[in-house]
Hints:
A 5-stranded parallel β-sheet has the order 1-2-3-4-5. Strands 6-7-8-9 form a 4-stranded antiparallel β-sheet, with no helix packed on it. It contains 6 helices and 12 strands. By secondary structure, it is an alpha/beta fold. The protein is globular and about 50 Å long. The two termini are 35 Å apart. Strand 7 (125-130) and strand 8 form a beta hairpin.
Amino acid sequence: MSLAPELEGAEEWCRWITEQGVHVEIGYTLCDSEMITNAADWGVDTTTHFFNGFEAMHHRKDGAIVGCLLEDRLSHQMTCDGHHVNKSWIKLAIKTKGIDKIYGVTDEFNFSGLDDGEYENDHYGTILVHDGLVTVKSSGMILGGNNTWDKMMRRARNIIGLDEIQIAKMFGENPAKCLGIKDRGKIEVGRRSDFCLMDKDYNVIKTIIKGKVAYKL
């Protein structure tokens, strides 16, 4: 669950819900770096769509992004599609935190799956679906992504410039690790037989769940 740690009652709620085994993410916040450290003390261990929903960094201001980069206890979700976050910022986060602290997400949501084109929405007006992104036509505001996991891996390579090892960690091992899931995430003796076989261009060839083939190209 996502949390802006500066909100009233945040500490009490965070300490209680993490005791129930729920992972809390920092997101949509205007707090400073000291509050980021405090949140980590309360049990927060990751961030929501890092860089998105955070106040932009400024060299004269102590903000949340700086606090997140400095706090070793935090891992970071990132949308590596070349739209949500500039590729240099993604590389900065990887260099600062280490690849083991970064995991990829899709940012898919209720509009995902639409073909490219324009659609009318009661709340946003005209929305545009193009190049794996959903935006508001009038303002250009990003509403979310339209890329599945395999497409995100391909874009992370082609647009961001990540290598096969970085992508394997960010989209395979690290999401499980960041959520404390120890029986999946990589192929290893003692782990569940849940995995996808992909070709070099990240097309899914076969999906295996609990040792049984669930999908085959």
